[in-house]
Amino acid sequence: MARTPKIAPLLQTDRLRLRPFRASDLKAMHALYGDAENLRYWGMDPSGSVENTRKMMRWHIAAAPRQYTIWAVEEKKSKRIVGMINYFRRDMRERRVEVGWLILPAMQGKGYMTEAGRALLRYLIDTLKVHRVEALIRPENKPSAALAKRLGFRLEGGPLRDRWLVGGQWHDVMIYGLIAGEER
Ligand SMILES: CC(C)(COP(=O)(O)OP(=O)(O)OC[C@H]1O[C@@H](n2cnc3c(N)ncnc32)[C@H](O)[C@@H]1OP(=O)(O)O)[C@@H](O)C(=O)NCCC(=O)NCCS
């Protein structure tokens, strides 16, 4: 079994640096997690305050990489955080993880998440020896479904009924899966 680094390792692409979040990134993290409109198809409630984001951030940074790791997606040319990407619900025995992605509205449509997603998949498959990657996506979330397909995920099933509870409401999701070797 591959050894898991204690903190998110640095992953580089042409235009991006994927790196751990630091306590000093609070404002950038809140810009991502506090934007209710951008998070309208997200699996959790948006953060209602910077104080709440601070608590979330402590959790994100302290989480055990055997199950969870988040990266800040930084644009190389501006050195600004433009998004985040993570893996979670990692199952070591079955070598499976779920992934999530989020980018600031102004930074969408540039292919940044395709680039970040490819780097994450390389890391998961080559370094952590993950065999299966899953993405759960609301049927309404066309940009996320398009991104998953671009990366090589296949739509495997759904709707999984009432899979997410967000803002007190149940939501159905579709399940996308990628097996090692199918990444594009
Ligand atoms: C899901 C999400 C990350 C997708 O972002 P995105 O910017 O569409 O995805 P990418 O970064 O891969 O960019 C792809 C777009 O950039 C365009 N593009 C421009 N240059 C490109 C390049 N060099 N390479 C690839 N695509 C490029 C593509 O044509 C595509 O645009 P289109 O959708 O108009 O065809 C974004 O919509 C988001 O953050 N949503 C809110 C959070 C969320 O719902 N997350 C998912 C929960 S399941």
Low-confidence stretches: none
* Largest sheet, spatial ordering of strands: 1-2-3-4-5-6-8-7
Largest sheet features = 8 strands, mixed
Small-molecule components bound:
coenzyme A
End-to-end distance: 24 Å
Which terms would index this structure?
184 residues; 4 helices; single chain; 8-stranded mixed β-sheet; alpha+beta; Aminopeptidase; binds coenzyme A; globular
Model description:
The protein is of the alpha+beta class. It has a domain at 11-135: Gcn5-related N-acetyltransferase (GNAT) (Aminopeptidase, 3-Layer(aba) Sandwich). The chain has four helices and eight strands; from the N terminus they run E-E-H-H-E-E-E-H-E-H-E-E. It has helices at residues 26-33, 50-62, 112-127, 142-151, and strands at residues 11-12, 16-19, 69-75, 80-91, 96-103, 132-137, 154-166, 169-179. Strands 1-2-3-4-5-6-8-7 form an eight-stranded mixed beta sheet, with helices on both faces. Helix 3 crosses helix 4 (142-151). The longest helix is centred in the middle third of the chain and has 16 residues, at 112-127. The chain is globular and about 35 Å long. The structure holds coenzyme A. The site of coenzyme A (COA) has 20 residues, from strand 5, helix 3 and helix 4.
